[in-house]
Structure formats: structure tokens, C-alpha cells
Specification:
With about 120 residues, the chain is mainly α. The chain has helices at about 1-30, 30-35, 45-70, 70-90, 100-120. The chain has one domain (about 1-120). About 85% of the residues lie in helices and about 0% in strands.
């Protein structure tokens, strides 16, 4: 049980660390992105890049969680991340297209679980 809880917590923390580092790289590597980030006036390409950052973070999160606590920890971490981001995306719903919110929110548990399976060599 301790490994499950620890893996879940590490996966969630890992998501935020990875997302922060990847977003910093995006910001420094794409000056136009950095210029509009505060206003959230993203182009389609910028939104796609943000989704890729989230996807990589979710896979990494699941991988971290599963290495410590097994594939259940990865699934739980993804579900908790979804629950954490639901109210934020509800508040931001008018600022982004529906496809963006749906892709982001759906990717949290799905890609987190994929990362968990990758950590276990693709086994359930």
C-alpha cells in the first residue's frame, strides 16, 4: 500500500516537474509563444505544442508512478490529475476550443496509463 501511495504521489509530482521543464523549453525555444503565453492568445500550433508537453508529461508521470507503485499507481495518478484539472478547464472553457480541453483532459488518465504499461514492459 505504501508503494502504491508513494508511486501515485511521485507520478503526480513528476507530471508537474516534467510539464514545467518542457514548458520552459517551449518558452525559451519559441519567442512568439513566450510573447503570448500570459494572455493565452495561442495559435493552433501553440495549442498543439502545449498538448504535446502535456502528453509527454502524462506518459512520464505514468512511467514514474508504475516504476514505484505498479500500474495501478499510474492509473490513479492519471485520475487524480484529471480531477485536479477539471475545475481549471471549466473556468478556462471560453478561452480555448472544446477540442483542446477534451484532448488535454482525456490524455491525462489515458497517457498516464500508457506510461505505466511502458514501465512494466507493456504488460498489464
Amino acid at each position: 500500500m505504501a508503494r502504491l501511495i508513494g508511486g501515485t504521489a511521485a507520478g503526480i509530482l513528476g507530471w508537474f516537474v516534467l510539464a514545467t521543464l518542457l514548458n520552459l523549453a517551449l518558452r525559451h525555444g519559441w519567442p512568439d509563444y513566450a510573447a503570448v503565453e500570459k494572455a493565452m492568445a495561442f495559435t493552433w500550433a501553440m495549442m498543439a505544442a502545449r498538448l504535446l508537453v502535456s502528453a509527454a508529461s502524462s506518459i512520464g508521470s505514468g512511467f514514474i508512478a508504475a516504476r514505484i507503485g505498479g500500474v495501478r499507481a499510474a492509473a490513479i495518478a492519471g485520475a487524480i490529475l484529471l480531477l485536479m484539472f477539471l475545475p481549471i478547464h471549466y473556468l478556462l472553457w471560453q478561452r480555448f476550443p472544446a477540442w483542446y480541453h477534451l484532448a488535454f483532459l482525456a490524455s491525462l488518465p489515458l497517457l498516464g496509463s500508457l506510461g505505466g504499461r511502458l514501465a512494466r514492459g507493456g504488460s498489464r
